[in-house]
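Lay summary. Proteins are chains of building blocks that fold into shapes, and those shapes determine what they do. In this project we predict the shape from the chain. Here is one chain we studied, written as its sequence of building blocks.
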Amino acid sequence: MVERLTVIFFIVLCILLGLYLILSPWDALFGPWGENYLLVFLADKAGAPALQTTVASTWFRGAVTALGVLNLIIAIWEIAHFNQSVRMLQGDDRRGQGT
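And here is the predicted shape, written in a compact code that computers can read:
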């Protein structure tokens, strides 16, 4: 039962993280992407204003969105192979042992 819950929580985590990574760079709901307090603070303290412009660029936003899509693909793969993942966590995966 613990193994099933572990896989379910991992799937939920991948879905939520994927949706957040897809939406947050483009949506103003989470605040302005390139002007958040932490980013401005780090760019100021590091003396690297290029850091803020890099993070605010569209190619960086696209890279973050691609990570979100990758998380959704992992969640879909885990859903499709749910029983295999549970067996692997239980230690009953006998594939490759000749049986």
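What the prediction tells us: The mean pLDDT is 86.
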